[in-house]
Amino acid sequence: MYISICDDEPQETEYLSTLVSEWGRLYGYPCEIKTFPSAEAFLFSYAENRICDILLLDVEMSGISGVELAKRIREDKSRTEIIFITSHTEFIGEGYEVDALHYLVKPVAGDRLMPVLSKAAGRLSVEPPSVVITCEHETIKLYEADILYVESFLHYISIHTGKREYRIKENISSFAARLSPDFFRIHRSYLVSLKYVTRISRTFVTLEDSSMKEAIELPLARGKYDEINRAFISRN
């Protein structure tokens, strides 16, 4: 479990770290805990490694506030479970906008924090399928639901999502092996998500999604027509 604590009060950060460690020991969750004195420090680290399961976040910090940081995380479509820590209850309403799991008022008692951490872990345990990649010196968790299709270029592949394209050094066969049966190899150079397939012809497959400006047509290899139809019907 990757847990981050972002608070500009060193004593509070140390105290929360102790509680999180104790929770992990009691409930059997191995934890990697990272602490940050500001939202800016968190964002600097997050830009390089976007893996954060649970974030304990102080609402009121100088510079970028906790609420603003949470909004930036949600812009990245992250499923990080955010637990706000605050000294004032009037900020509680702002948590709904960023799908915060819970608000805890300082000083945080262990018997209040631990059930919330367990709830966060429970929600994460039903997390949808994902794959971790390294792209441009960043470690990124991609959810399968966000992947439209994958294109192969010799020793590299390009992973196309509605938001951006990720180019990594990996062959398409090994990448396909890391994904669920929701993906189908339509051609030696293309792997598509059946979720976005809207039409199958003898020679091409059409993909459509609201994130696309227009539908995409990709070549279907000879002899794949019956197989992809069976996979498509089975999924739906």
UniProtKB/TrEMBL annotation:
Gene Ontology molecular functions: DNA binding; phosphorelay response regulator activity
Q: Which domain of life is it from?
A: Bacteria
- Does this entry carry the keyword Transit peptide? no
**Quick check: keyword Protein biosynthesis in the entry?**
no
Record-linked Gene3D superfamilies: 3.40.50.2300, LytTr DNA-binding domain
Q: What does this protein do?
A: May play the central regulatory role in sporulation. It may be an element of the effector pathway responsible for the activation of sporulation genes in response to nutritional stress. Spo0A may act in concert with spo0H (a sigma factor) to control the expression of some genes that are critical to the sporulation process.
Identify this protein by name: Stage 0 sporulation protein A homolog
Q: Which gene encodes it?
A: ypdB_2
